[in-house]
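Predict structure. Chain length: 547.
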Amino acid sequence: MSWTPKKAIPPAELQTSLLAEPAQELALLDVRETRWFVQRHPNLARNAPCSGLELQIGALVPRRSTPVVLYDDYNAPDGAAQAGAALLARIGYSDVRTLDGGLQRWVTEGLPAIDGYGTLVKAFGDRARLHYRTPSLPVEALRTRQRQGLPTTLVDARPRAEFEFLSLPGARNHPGTELALRHFEPRQGEGHVWAINCFSRTRGIIGATTLRLLGHAPDAVFVEDGVMAWGLQGAPTVQNAAPDDELPPESPQVLRRIADELIERFALPVADARQLAQWRADDTRTLYLFDVRPTADPALAGTAVQQVPGGQLLMHFENLVGTRGARIVLLDDPAHRLRAAVTSFWLTQLNQAEVHIYDDDGGGAFLPEQAPPATPSAVAKDAPQALDPAALAQLRRNGAVTVIDVGPSLDYERGHLPGALYMLPASLAPLAAHAVAGRTLVFTSPDGAAAARVARDAHQRWPGSGAVFTWLQDGTQGWKASGRPLTTAFVPAQLLTPFDDDWGSVMRVFGPRRDAAWADYLAWERALAERVLQDPSVRFRFFPLPD
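Prediction complete.
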């Protein structure tokens, strides 16, 4: 069935919608590749690139009747916004419009835009620091304390993988809300300081502020600019780090008391099983269900609940919640709910959604009957038949096969099938020279989901070419699990497209360029909040300061 475009929304009308009070549900999606998104975008936009839109949209915007606005640079007839709108209409989204004139008209009309990635949450973190008067500890002062033997406990608040990548010597590691679940001795010695760090700023700020507000550690400070500032001073960092001794866990009874006090003190909304059932039956509002525990609950497998462990829901909010004004319900350990309470405390102040802590007073199990958000090609049901690793290995020995990796470029850099080409599948055009008679094209991606979609689309694009289009079952992960080798080596000729999904993360900058990149990033992040808050549609709402 052909798609008839709806009338594009003018920029001024879109901004009026974003300014509405109370916030109405709306998903504003930038469907350009991430390299271009970070150059400039409206503050409340989410990045949902065309190259991964079909896989991403079901979780990002789960309600199919949600008002969705897509944009690219100009809203040209052959552009990404029109292609994305046609895709969403095909898979069942009923209220999809594009931005008239695209981002260029938005900017020309003087409407606010920002550069960077994760800007809303980073600006929020810095404003939280000012509002709650969270003290900072410059890295020079931290190093001085350590040299002088002053009592200092250093804790890195990032997830374990990021901590292991690069961290400070002597640091413990308790990511996000997990830090709030530890036991803190009332006195650690005269002048003791709990120093909370991350790679730069936000998670260190949130971690230190949380400890102070909960009464865990009134002497908590955040390490100003974190690992980056430490490295810029020439101090040694640790790769493949193992954390120092862990802080002991607190008892569930104490955690319950702390959670109850936090919920009561800030009137954080709580939802029971009956209320949740009503919301799940409400097809006029979007509902996101997040499990904030550190390990997945097998009972929730195959449901609509998304697990976001380690307190990372706030930090990754812009990648997880595409619909502004939606409902969010947080699932946690029913014995205490402290992770959910802390997460609700922060997300409520971010002021992008209606946030609730799940608490079944009747003691019933949390077993949603609701199916997971539709992801039309989690493995595309109309995709060609897949190859398992053994079959692909045999084909490669026989020749006349081209392997094309269509996953994220970072995964390709970290390990791909030897000789595999790379393509970001925003368009199939780069495949034209390879879709020839007698050639087998095998697509792969980390788990095979994106590969199945591209194989399907290529088969439909060149049905009479004589080429065979297939994909690798379980993707690159399955290839590795079968004991077959991956490589990090590649030459420019293997790249059918640039790495346009690379948003310029400073964690991908090494060697002589590192220090300049890190210094530029820190200067940008320190100035970010003031720029973001010039946009009247960004309205953080902080709780009054505690007495």
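Summary: The first strand starts at residue 27 and ends at 30.
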